Amino acid sequence: MDQQRPLLYFTLLFLSYLIWTTWLQDHAPKPTVQTQTNTATITQSSPNANTSQVDIPTGVATASGSSKSVPNNTSTNNTTDHGIHVKTDVLDLIISTTGGSIIQADLPTYPVSLEEKDRPVRVLDPKKSYAAQSGLIGETPELAPNHYAQYSAPQDTYQLLDGSNELVVPLTWTNGKGITVTKRYIFQKGSFLIRVEQTIDNQSGALWKGSSYQQLTHSPKNKSNGMMGIQAYTGAAYYNNKYEKISFSDMESETLSNVVKGGWAAMLEHYFVSAWIPPKDQENTYYTNYIKENNRYIMGVKSPEVQVATGTQGNLNSQFYVGPKIQADLEKISKGLDLTVDYGVFSFVSKPLFWVMQAIHNVVGNWGWTIIFVTLLIKLVFFYPSAISYRSMARMKKLAPKIKEINERFKGDPQGKQKATMDFYRKEKINPLGGCLPMLIQMPVFMGLYWVLLESVELRQAPWLAWYQDLSVLDPYYVLPIIFGISMYVQQKLNPPQADPMQQKIFAFLPVVFTIMFLFFPAGLVLYWVVNNILSIIQQWYITKQIVDND
């Protein structure tokens, strides 16, 4: 069996994986959900007392199995709708007085690009109908302000001042009949996590019954291609004792209604996530909806029903996260929230690989050098199996003239040639599959690192040296891909030659093929492969020299 054939198989397998991944993003199997035909109906683009406001959750099963009628309330307040500007050291938000919804969220510490350092990443965005809504629903709709109700606020702007650790933004709604609801957004210095408290003050003379809901809305994602056609996932997810993704196409075909203890509901966009996190000790109903008329997708969570006696107050609390997908922070907030850093099928490699990289980065402080040290570590771990493989390949190269002689002798007898070749391998104690081992070992590591670079916000805009100011994007001058191509050519020269002239031509062209492929890979990944190739060349050259000189 030809020694370099595994390289061709690897190329085909890798390209097949890229095609499969791209196809899967648009045709993934639907998650198993409990369908509910009347979960919600259609919304209007703006609140109106004469419309049904049907993007408000209703008909979803509560923890006790009951359901509620469609709420359709507007506030008795006549406050003009406007935005409240809230700014902390890490967040820059606009909260609408309509429903007290967060309709825009910028991250000042995360610029859009290195060329636009003064322009922050915008996560929640009105242009994408991407917003965080919350409200109350109850048996008597006019007593429970939903996300169309008009709130009032003491002031239009809030800012976390230097020396302060907390900022509270209160919004108030009242129906003029004894029910007052205060929605408080509580911000902490240096945190992307916001506490949201809804206090119901019941002075109506009757028992108040109702639930809270929190939901995220989003318009369809842009059809832009990622690296080599692979795109980071954009869509909804929730935690149902395991990480469940619900794509926008899934929402169009069926609705979700699932009761889960604790959990969270999220929208994902590459490096950033927004998520509603209800109290972990209560049973919450997670739901989805697709609003066909204005092409919006909804992922939300609804609390169990609570009762507030007249003359008392009741609280319905939750948390909202809007920011980068920093695994260590997300893991502390809620179980499974760190899984929104979605490494896909290679998580078993990517997660430990990122952990090791994070530990190294804490020492060296540079992601480029971190990748180099990780490569060295990987080579040390697999040094022995690689050495076995290189010895096999070196012996094959030394015995190439005898193999060529067998091929010439059985030129017109393929079966005889195969038998004679295998007998020769057994006699010389050569494993013709020995060259496969490094390739098989490297492929999961290669793909695992690919997803670490694609998904880990920690490596976003991470510099190395010279013009390498962002290792998560392409090499602007293609220096690393060209070095990779040269190193692959040198490595091939150390391998035994192909007996078949056609295969010789194919493998001679492979460095060009891989170089072109690597032009579209992030610079950090190409850096890993260049260092790996150089180390492999040194190891293989030394072993080959020993065998050729000493055998």
Task: Describe the protein's topology.
Blueprint: H1 5-27, E1 83-87, E2 92-96, E3 102-111, E4 120-122, E5 131-138, E6 157-159, E7 166-174, E8 179-188, E9 193-202, E10 208-218, E11 234-239, E12 243-246, H2 248-253, E13 257-261, E14 265-269, E15 272-277, E16 283-291, E17 296-302, E18 306-308, E19 312-324, H3 327-333, H4 347-364, H5 367-381, H6 383-398, H7 400-409, H8 414-428, H9 436-455, H10 479-494, H11 501-518, H12 523-550
Parallel strand pairs: 1-6
Antiparallel strand pairs: 1-2, 2-3, 3-4, 5-10, 7-8, 8-9, 9-19, 10-17, 10-18, 11-12, 11-14, 13-16, 14-15, 15-19, 16-17
Helix pairs in contact: 1-9, 1-11, 4-5, 4-9, 5-12, 6-12, 7-8, 9-12, 10-11, 10-12
CATH level 3 topology of the largest domain: Beta-galactosidase, Chain A, domain 5
- As a percent range, the share of strand residues is 15-25%
Number of strands: 19
Helix share of residues? Answer: 25-40%
Distance between the termini: 23 Å
Instruction: List the domain count as a whole number.
Output: 2
Q: Give the second-level CATH assignment, the architecture of the largest domain.
A: Distorted Sandwich
How many alpha or pi helices?
12
Q: What is the approximate shape?
A: elongated
| Radius of gyration, CA atoms, in whole angstroms | 30 Å
Averaging pLDDT over every residue, what do you get?
82
